[in-house]
């Protein structure tokens, strides 16, 4: 019964408060925005350095900085007044984001920016800073680990006379056959390879084989060629 009365008193007090920022001092406001900005810039830097897509979008990367700051502002606003928090939830519920996000990693960066903004707006700076450092270090490590064995598509056009030698070399490299097409007397072979430290000397060896017309090596991210 006492808890119920306390909730009613708290609700009435919150409703009667007209000043939305009564509970936020200027120092807290500036500090939260500063932390949100710095973390947003850190996300911006990590995204720029670890991006492995086809076309890098500077404008899209800028949204992470703004998203972190705006989220911090929202959290500071709704934390001062129950009525404002209910109104903010209602307003945000009608927002629809229709921009297609093709890369799952981009969604992860969005959640990172929102989470950091929430922690900064709630003045839990240790969580925001340490959590962002851990996430950034994890992304950097996973990205560099992936680069150590980068996937490539080897595309070879050759005549029938070179088929056995080409197959022998592909098997030796532990390549995975993706496609093979024959047009007249020319065969096109597409093989996925894992290459360490950008060692592409074998391309010249394939090109030197008798009967090989041309060789192409294309960077490959698992979904599409770049």
UniProtKB/TrEMBL annotation:
Key words of the record: Membrane, Transmembrane, Transmembrane helix
Name this protein carries in UniProt: DUF4956 domain-containing protein
Q: Which taxonomic lineage does the organism of this UniProt entry have?
A: Bacteria, Bacillati, Bacillota, Bacilli, Bacillales
Locate the transmembrane regions by residue number: 20-44, 64-97, 109-142
Q: Give the highest taxon in the source lineage.
A: Bacteria
The protein's matches in Pfam families, at most eight in alphabetical order, are given as: DUF4956
């Amino acid at each position: 019964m006492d808890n119920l009365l306390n909730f009613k008193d708290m609700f009435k007090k919150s409703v009667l408060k007209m000043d939305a920022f009564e509970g936020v001092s200027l120092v807290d406001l500036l500090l939260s925005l500063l932390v949100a900005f710095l973390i947003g810039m850190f996300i911006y830097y990590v995204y720029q350095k670890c991006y492995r897509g086809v076309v890098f979008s500077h404008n899209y990367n800028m949204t992470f900085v703004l998203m972190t700051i705006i989220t911090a502002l929202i959290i500071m606003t709704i934390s001062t007044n129950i009525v404002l928090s209910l109104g903010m939830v209602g307003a945000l519920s009608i927002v629809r984001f229709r921009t297609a996000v093709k890369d799952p990693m981009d969604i992860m960066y969005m959640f990172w920016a929102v989470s950091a903004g929430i922690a900064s707006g709630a003045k839990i700076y240790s969580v925001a800073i340490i959590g962002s450092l851990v996430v950034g270090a994890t992304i950097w490590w996973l990205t560099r680990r992936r680069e150590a064995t980068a996937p490539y598509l080897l595309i070879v056009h050759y005549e029938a006379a070179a088929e056995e030698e080409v197959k022998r070399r592909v098997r030796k490299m532990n390549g995975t056959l993706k496609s093979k097409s024959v047009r007249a007397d020319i065969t096109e072979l597409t093989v996925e390879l894992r290459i360490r430290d950008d060692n592409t000397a074998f391309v010249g060896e394939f090109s030197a084989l008798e009967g090989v017309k041309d060789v192409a090596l294309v960077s490959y991210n698992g979904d599409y060629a770049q």
